[in-house]
Design goal:
The complex is a heterotrimer. Helix content of chain A is 67%, strand content 0%. Chain A is mostly helical. Chain A has one domain: Up-down Bundle (3 helical TM bundles of succinate and fumarate reductases). In chain B, a hairpin with an 8-residue loop joins strand 19 and strand 20. By secondary structure, chain C is α+β, with helices and mostly antiparallel strands. Chain C folds into 2 domains: 109 residues, Beta-grasp domain (Ubiquitin-like (UB roll)), CATH 3.10.20.30; 146 residues, Fumarate Reductase Iron-sulfur Protein, Chain B, domain 2. Chain C has 9 helices and 7 strands. Chain C is elongated, with a radius of gyration of 21 Å. The N and C termini of chain C lie far apart (54 Å). Classes of the chains: A mainly alpha, B alpha+beta, C alpha+beta.
């Protein structure tokens, strides 16, 4: 077999060394699908947070007392078992971890996807993808920038306010003051539009990744995803719009 | 006279007896033997996988980019097995009988019996591999009926049975490749067999990407390279299907049996344009529910739905009341040709008949018809633009399968020692006509069960000197192959390979197609050598050997068809009887059926190559029928 | 019909390619797309030029050999159709068509419109089979398979391995292909013993072959000539999670191919 030598290796599946590690979380993270599952699960956490946040925001229309009390409530909930603000910090750490994992997974998968097609097409026509699905990555970057700004702005009061204007737990006053600057409101609304697109594809995508999508309910899931995205968008922008329109003072 | 080495004893014991007589190879010694399998369709992939499982060193070759692309994948209807799950009177004996009768008594009884016996194991094997056969709601396997039989023994996976069976074999093969037992050589076309010391000990191949001509040595070579219907240019075969592997083996001394036995399939989509490159088959299973008809009067050009019931001629039901639309393929094809010759054909050029589902849709409802045949109706609409739920399909016969092939003995070994032949490439099981759903059965029987038993026996029964590719025989054959390719490339003529192929195909279809006569065959035998000469002098070729050169591949294959065509006509001329797919207009019953001549032609004609341009020498294997009584085949 | 074709020409894998424009005439509506290319090639051959290399074989949409992009759409973008079955009646006289090969790291171009798809075979080798040595199978009807499972397995097994899903995917992901094979075997009772091993190995092989990952655009589903649904990707994901989290006594065997890749 001069010219066809080299087939001497005989593998035996049974004696194969174990290469998939014994820690399921590490194994999960090491697979491409595992990373997607991580994105779906962390995404679900963040969607839950976003919806709750939006609902909480609407309290502003009940007046300054309602929302300021609500802000206070978020810090005392869990007492006396936990200390003041501790539950909030636990939630915040879960959210932070989710954001970090979501971004790392997205980053790694994006690099893989870029590497998978080194030479691009001259023409490639999209047939089923949506604008929302194609803008996930840039939309994500916009959201990250927004989140950082948002925390520095309303949560910490270090940007977007005159010195001394921001006051801890005076949510109503902070919001009205913050949104009175139109560039801030504009950025906020743009970011919420990005969020809307991100959710439109993201919610459906997470459900599909977790395997709950079937051919029969696919269109319903897509529709539900879109409805949630739009509701979240409207809920969030109702506040800056109301401030700019002068309905909230 | 040829000896097929059929074991003695009662027919139902022959295969058991043979298997017991066989010598075995100790498991530890198996890896010392290497086996070359050429082709990765049903027969090739299943043989390579099984021999790999047994522990031999297998080298499998395909000209495709993946073994999954072999043309077995296109088989639609189903696979027969004598399971009798329906309790409708089926048995091994009956499958055997139906196949011998369906083959118009020109097959070898012992082989057919073995095929029927093994058929049940094939279904078990395939189901275990995960082949998704159609099932009943109770979870059991479903079956349907097929042409030429009166029981429901055909297992199927919608209209894609061949695909599913091939994927099963392909997966088993890929597993063996991963395990290192089989080495797969893709995009690698076999161009010759190498004989050393009177035995087949290797092959010469061309790497289709680089043009490299390679030699491969082994202890035994198995060809599972399919049939040669593409000699007709337009056929239901895939574009690359060719005769080269078996033809080159024939030129090295393997006898070629019954080359004129070709099957014309009755239900294909008619040719629509002169640029047509191939014909598309519509599964025979359609004849379960579809009714075939033409208008009663000549030149009736009304749309089919406007022709009233009384003015339609359901000619198959009329002529063959007991089998009706399920008459065997050869008979259904010829009947279609006859009504079209009478001028009652439909569609452009009058070469077509209707296959009508109107009744079935009224009886079963459109949904049920869609469930059963949906993908076939879709294919039809895709190609013709017509909706067969609304108006009948138009169909016409087309070359589909070749029963002829390299002559093999009971062990599937050709007349070249060490050269085994499986699947459509051999001649043994279908006689002069193959029944529907039997090709898949035979390919898998050969590949899963027969070759993996007989090849080890051959290995155990002979002593093998160490032969490698440094043996001068390899260098010599390699040089011959290279020279032939260079010769093709050096012709700076005017005509493209396709134009020659088309001309040859038209000639074969007209003169050696559904009806043959002394006159048509003699004429063809005069014209073929002239065409071959022109081919070798007026071919236009571009490019070199050292690149992916699809024109060169094509021309090389056509060069073999040019020789095979002559042998087909010669065989057809010599067989002065009609049988199965071979219809000599001089030999027919008063009502136009094929008239066999058992006294003079009850044999397999095995032709021996004696050199280009010289006549072949014929050897005969007499066919004796001990179990099935010779009778005029009747489906009336 | 007369058409202008803008075809990707590349003499071999290691040489640069470019688009070349050709005119074809005499095209009739009942021709198939590949027959139209046959006309072009016959013309080129007569002029002594190298014909356009493209893969094709059965020309009835089942072997999976053919495929390239026509104006940015895999297989021409006609639902449930391979390019070999696409009839020219869907085009208009004077149309200008751009023909481009599948592009992916895992599918290197060999020549013109021909690419190397052997990466698909290696994914199958890593676990796309049920181990059943010939002769060891039980009686076929001893294994009951609910019709729904059998039908699902068939829908998945209908995949022809053409690679259109990878070509159309913005990420050049092979998840539709891989999920089809995993679903085919994992949904059947016969496939259960090797289910977790199959899921893990095939998913790992997909990464080793340098395919991208799914972002649920659905482009693959849109171009799949066998209309394999996205649903199967979800099923594969669940099967992978099952394989990862299921508690078992023995380690899952790792396919030799995946092992080699991991050791690299």
């Amino acid at each position: 077999m001069a010219e066809t030598a080299g087939a001497e290796k005989v593998h035996s599946g049974a004696q194969a060394p174990r290469a998939f590690t014994s820690n399921p979380l590490i194994t999960l993270w090491s697979t491409v699908i595992g990373k997607k599952i991580v994105m779906a699960v962390t995404g679900a956490v963040l969607v839950g947070f976003v919806i709750a946040h939006m609902v909480g925001n609407l309290k502003i229309f009940e007046g300054a007392d309602a929302i300021n009390t609500y802000a206070h409530f978020l810090r005392v909930v869990g007492m006396p078992e936990l200390g003041y603000g501790q539950l909030l910090w636990i939630v915040r750490s879960v959210l932070l971890l989710s954001v970090i994992l979501h971004i790392i997974a997205a980053w790694q998968l994006t690099l893989m996807n870029r590497a998978a097609r080194p030479v691009d097409y001259k023409i490639r026509a999209n047939q089923e993808s949506t604008w929302a699905s194609r803008t996930m990555r840039w939309g994500g970057v916009v959201l990250l920038v927004f989140i950082i700004f948002h925390i520095l702005h309303f949560t910490m009061g270090v940007v977007g306010f005159q010195p001394g204007q921001w006051q801890d737990l005076a949510v109503y006053q902070n919001v009205v003051a913050g949104f009175s600057l139109w560039p801030v409101s504009a950025f906020y609304i743009i970011a919420m539009a990005a969020l809307c697109l991100h959710l439109d594809h993201g919610i459906w995508s997470g459900i599909q990744t977790l395997g709950w999508n079937t051919q029969r309910n696919q269109s319903k899931i897509r529709m539900a995803s879109r409805v949630i995205a739009v509701i979240v968008f409207l809920g969030f922008i109702s506040v800056p719009v109301s401030v700019l329109a002068g309905w909230l003072k | 006279m040829l000896d097929a080495h059929i074991p003695s004893g009662p027919i139902e014991k022959k295969w058991d007896k043979r298997r017991f007589e066989m010598k075995l190879v100790n498991p530890a010694n198996r890896r010392k033997h290497s086996i070359i399998v050429v082709g990765s369709g049903l027969a090739g992939a299943s043989a390579a996988a099984t021999l790999g499982q047994q522990g031999y060193h297998v080298h499998c070759f395909t000209y495709h980019d993946s073994p999954r692309r072999a043309h077995s994948i296109a088989a639609q209807g189903g696979i027969n097995a004598a399971k009798n799950y329906r309790n409708d009177g089926d048995s091994v004996q009956r499958l055997f009988y139906d196949t011998v009768k369906g083959g118009d008594f020109r097959s070898r009884e012992a082989n057919v019996y073995r095929l029927a016996e093994i058929s049940v194991n094939i279904i078990d094997q395939c189901v275990a591999q995960g082949v998704p056969f159609a099932r009943e709601y109770g979870g059991l396997l479903d079956t349907r009926s097929f042409g030429g039989v009166q029981v429901q023994r055909t297992f199927y996976a919608r209209g894609q049975t061949g695909q599913q069976l091939l994927l099963g074999a392909y997966q088993a093969l890929e597993e063996q490749i991963a395990a290192g037992n089989v080495r797969m050589h893709t995009r690698c076309e076999m161009l010759d067999v190498v004989m050393v010391g009177g035995r087949a000990r290797g092959i010469i191949t061309r790497d289709l990407l680089t043009g490299k001509i390679d030699a491969h040595a082994a202890d035994v070579v198995a060809l599972c390279t399919g049939g040669y219907s593409n000699v007709f240019f337009l056929s239901t075969n895939a574009m690359a299907c060719n005769t080269s592997a078996i033809w080159r083996a024939h030129r090295r001394g393997a006898l070629f049996a019954n080359p004129c036995f070709t099957q014309i399939h009755p239900t294909c989509i008619p040719q629509s344009s002169e640029h047509q490159s191939k014909l598309t088959l519509m599964s025979e299973s359609l004849r379960n529910d579809g009714r075939v008809w033409v208008p009663k009067t000549k030149g009736d050009n009304r749309p089919p739905n406007q022709i009233p019931e009384g003015e339609r001629d359901y000619y198959l039901e009329r002529r063959y009341p007991s089998f009706g639309n399920l008459a065997p393929r050869d008979i259904a094809s010829r009947a279609a040709k006859e009504v079209c010759d009478e001028g009652r054909g439909v569609g452009p050029g009058g070469r077509g008949v209707y296959l009508d589902f109107g009744d079935a849709i009224r009886r079963l409802g459109e949904e049920n018809v869609r469930e059963k045949y949906g993908n076939l109706f879709d294919i039809y609409e895709e190609i013709t633009g017509d909706d067969a739920y609304k108006s009948p399909m138009r169909i016409y016969p087309a070359p589909h399968y070749t029963m002829g092939g390299l002559w093999v003995d009971y062990d599937l070994m050709s007349t070249l020692p060490g050269l085994f032949v499986g699947g459509e490439a051999n001649f043994s099981d279908h006689g002069a006509n193959r029944l529907g759903a039997s090709a898949l059965m035979q390919g898998l029987a050969d590949g899963y069960f027969v070759l993996p038993a007989t090849i080890p026996n051959y290995l155990a029964s002979n002593k093998f000197d160490k032969v490698d590719t440094s043996n001068p025989a390899f260098a010599q054959v390699k040089a011959e192959v290279t020279e032939r390719l260079q010769k093709l490339l050096s012709i700076k003529g005017k005509r493209t390979p396709d134009s020659f192929h088309r001309e040859l195909g038209t000639l074969m279809w007209n003169n050696c197609g559904m009806a043959r006569s002394e006159k048509s065959l003699t004429e063809a035998l005069q014209r073929i050598p002239a065409l071959r000469d022109e081919f070798w002098n007026n071919l236009s070729m571009v490019g070199t050997n050292e690149e992916l050169n699809q024109s060169l591949e094509k021309a090389n294959r056509i060069s073999d068809f040019m020789e095979l065509a002559e042998l087909m006509c010669l065989d057809a001329l010599e067989r002065k009887e009609s049988c199965g797919g071979h219809f000599r207009i001089e030999s027919q019953t008063p009502d136009g059926e094929a008239q066999r001549d058992d006294e003079h032609f009850s044999y397999a004609a095995a032709w021996e190559w004696t050199g280009t341009g010289k006549n072949w020498a014929v050897q005969k294997e007499p066919l004796t029928f001990e179990e099935v009584h010779l009778a005029q085949r009747s489906y009336k | 019909m007369k058409l202008t074709l803008n075809v990707w020409r590349q003499a071999s894998a290691n040489r640069a390619g470019s688009f070349v424009t050709y005119e074809v005439s005499g095209i009739t509506p009942d021709m198939s797309f590949l027959e139209m290319l046959d006309v072009l090639n016959e013309d080129l051959l007569t002029k002594g030029e190298a014909p356009v290399a493209f893969e094709h074989d059965c020309r009835e949409g089942i072997c999976g050999s053919c495929g390239f992009l026509v104006n940015g759409k895999a297989h021409g973008g006609h639902k449930g159709t391979t390019i070999c079955q696409l009839a020219m009646r869907f085009f208009k006289d004077g149309d200008s068509l751009t023909l481009e090969p599948w592009r992916a790291k895992a599918f290197p171009v060999i020549r013109d419109l021909v690419v190397d798809r052997s990466s698909f075979d290696r994914i199958i080798q890593s676990g796309g089979f049920i181990t059943v040595p010939t002769g060891s199978a039980p009686n076929a009807n001893a294994i009951l398979v609910p019709k729904e499972n059998s039908d699902t397995a068939f829908d998945a097994a209908a995949c022809i391995g053409c690679g259109a899903c990878v070509a159309a995917c913005p990420n050049a992901s092979a998840m539709l292909f891989t999920s089809a094979k995993i679903t085919h075997l994992n949904v059947l009772p016969q496939g259960q013993p090797q289910r977790d091993q199959r899921s893990l190995n095939m998913v790992a092989a997909m990464k080793e072959e340098m395919f991208g990952t799914c972002t649920n655009h659905g482009e693959c589903e849109a171009v799949c000539p066998k209309e394999i649904p996205l649903e199967f990707i979800g099923k594969m994901n669940r099967d992978l999670a099952r394989a990862v989290f299921k508690r078992r006594r023995e380690p899952i065997p790792v396919s030799p191919l995946v092992q080699e890749a991991m050791q690299k």
